[in-house]
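Severity: low
Component: inverse-folding endpoint
Summary: output formatting inconsistent between runs
Steps to reproduce: submit the following structure tokens with default settings.
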């Protein structure tokens, strides 16, 4: 096995498939997906082992002999096979060869699908790192799916390595294991680290202060650059997906993409997204109380000081007593040792303090997405702004050591074509987060623009034990869009084979938009419930009933 601790042996390029008496070798053998995948055993792309790499003979030089040999090859090939071959060759030539990952450290066996890592041009002097994995099913006909993680300021490689990428990082920070529920089993998946300053993405001017509008434009420019580099995919169906603060990234990007006829946008899906600060805050207090976190005394005080005429304002209430009690709710949910991303999961590393220290840096874990209007939050934000580069940011109750160890290994960075002068990779960038200007309090207008076009399929899905972006707030948000109800709230099922069909959550469908929950999952749904997440993803892409 090639491990992270040693150089990865590069495989020679395969410019052309090997021919046997007019029969294309890969078609004579069953191409295969990785063992254990849901699509294993079905026809797919030719495996690299079958492409005759080491026996390839360079084509004859220009001249009569070369032309004669070319005519012999054409005559030996059936017309349909020749058409397939020309199509295959054009796709190989279209992709950027310099970005192709020849050999990825940590895998016992290199994949049967192609993958690429490099940089996309964004606005100005910004360079966004991407990692693109082709579909294991059929890249030519499979949709292109963009994935963005949130923060703001966190890397989409978290989604790649711990959620739904083809390889999952193991605790040793060295080994990658194939993911039997990878989303690239049925889609070409593009992971972009956004905005600049996050992960391996950078800006020539090293200015990383940004805002929602700039990020949407930068992601749009990067997506256009992707289709410039991979023109063979420009006509494929395009879906925009993401998680958490991508609840802002994705709809703001979609509004730009819908105005570009060169992109074949079909829909968007957001998991545990921040769709509305107000509805997220208001619903979180109810979520916390009815999950047994607050107690009757605190709940009674909240009802007395934050509510009137059967309506509660836990978002921007100015009553001093309400503010005091909301600060206690904020402490319980975010700083008491509960896992804000999954109420029923342990907190990695044990119960943390408000701030922990590693070497000469403070490590903070508040991304500034809940109860943002509380006065102490603003004071804390200003103090952090003055602290500069002496602070690091990590997701709360999450162990990022394995991913950081892997992505900072020099052999991995080389395989991913990362410039040597770039600093170390971190899951989240404190300076990007703390300087980020949040321009939108709600995504209502963006979703209404998309829905009013009646052209796109939209899914908002939530793990139902997440507190960072809880399911109740997103359900309220979808309801507030006032779309025509088509399917009343009902259970949706997943076939787990050994235990048969089980309720995976609940779904309700409106005209062009659906809201779906995943039972027992937290903020990172594919991590907690990989089979349910894959089933949901497949039904979404194929426009099947959930």
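Observed output (run 2 of 3):
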């Amino acid at each position: 096995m090639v491990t992270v601790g040693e150089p990865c042996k590069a495989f020679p390029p395969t410019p052309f498939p090997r021919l046997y008496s007019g029969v294309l070798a890969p078609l004579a053998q069953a191409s295969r997906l990785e063992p254990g995948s849901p699509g294993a055993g079905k026809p797919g792309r030719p495996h690299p082992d079958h492409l005759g790499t080491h026996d390839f003979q360079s084509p004859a030089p220009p001249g009569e002999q070369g032309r004669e040999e070319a005519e012999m090859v054409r005559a030996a090939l059936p017309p349909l096979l020749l058409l397939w071959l020309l199509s295959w060759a054009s796709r190989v030539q279209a992709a950027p060869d310099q970005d192709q990952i020849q050999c990825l450290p940590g895998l016992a066996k290199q994949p049967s699908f192609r993958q690429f890592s490099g940089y996309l041009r964004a606005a100005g002097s910004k360079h966004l790192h991407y990692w693109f994995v082709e579909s294991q099913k059929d890249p030519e006909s499979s949709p292109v799916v963009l994935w963005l993680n949130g923060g703001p300021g966190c890397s989409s490689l978290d989604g790649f390595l711990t959620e739904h990428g083809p390889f999952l990082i193991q605790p040793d920070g060295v080994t990658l294991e194939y993911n039997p529920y990878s989303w690239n089993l049925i889609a070409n998946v593009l992971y972009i680290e956004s905005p600049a300053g996050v992960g391996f993405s950078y800006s020539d001017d090293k200015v990383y202060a940004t805002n929602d509008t700039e990020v949407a434009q930068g992601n749009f420019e990067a997506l256009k650059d992707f289709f410039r580099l991979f023109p063979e995919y420009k006509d494929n169906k395009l879906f925009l997906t993401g998680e958490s603060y991508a609840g802002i990234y994705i709809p703001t990007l979609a509004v730009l993409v819908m105005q570009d006829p060169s992109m074949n946008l079909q829909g968007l899906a957001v998991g545990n997204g921040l769709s509305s600060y107000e509805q997220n805050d208001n619903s979180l207090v109810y979520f916390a109380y009815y999950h047994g976190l607050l107690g009757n005394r605190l709940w009674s005080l909240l009802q007395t000081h934050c509510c009137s005429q059967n309506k509660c304002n836990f978002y921007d209430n100015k009553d001093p007593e309400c503010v005091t009690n909301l600060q206690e709710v904020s402490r319980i949910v975010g700083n008491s040792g509960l896992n804000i991303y999954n109420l029923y999961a342990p907190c990695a590393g044990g119960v943390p303090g408000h701030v922990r220290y590693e070497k000469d840096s403070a490590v903070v874990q508040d991304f500034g997405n809940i109860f943002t209007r509380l006065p102490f939050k603003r004071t804390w934000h200003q103090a952090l702004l003055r602290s500069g580069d002496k602070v690091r940011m990590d997701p709360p109750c999450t162990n990022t050591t394995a991913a950081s160890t892997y992505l900072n290994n020099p052999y991995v960075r080389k395989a991913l074509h990362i410039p040597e002068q770039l600093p170390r990779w971190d899951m989240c960038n404190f300076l990007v987060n703390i300087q980020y200007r949040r321009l939108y309090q709600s995504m209502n207008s963006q979703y209404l623009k998309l829905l009013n076009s009646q052209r796109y399929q939209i899914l908002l899905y939530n793990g139902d034990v997440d507190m960072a972006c809880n399911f109740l707030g997103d359900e309220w948000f979808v309801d507030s869009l006032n779309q025509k109800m088509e399917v009343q709230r009902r259970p949706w099922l997943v076939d787990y084979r050994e235990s048969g069909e089980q309720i995976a959550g609940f779904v309700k469908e409106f005209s062009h938009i659906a809201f779906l929950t995943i039972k027992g999952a937290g903020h990172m749904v594919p991590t907690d419930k990989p089979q349910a997440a894959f089933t949901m993803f497949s039904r979404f892409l194929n426009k099947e009933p959930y």
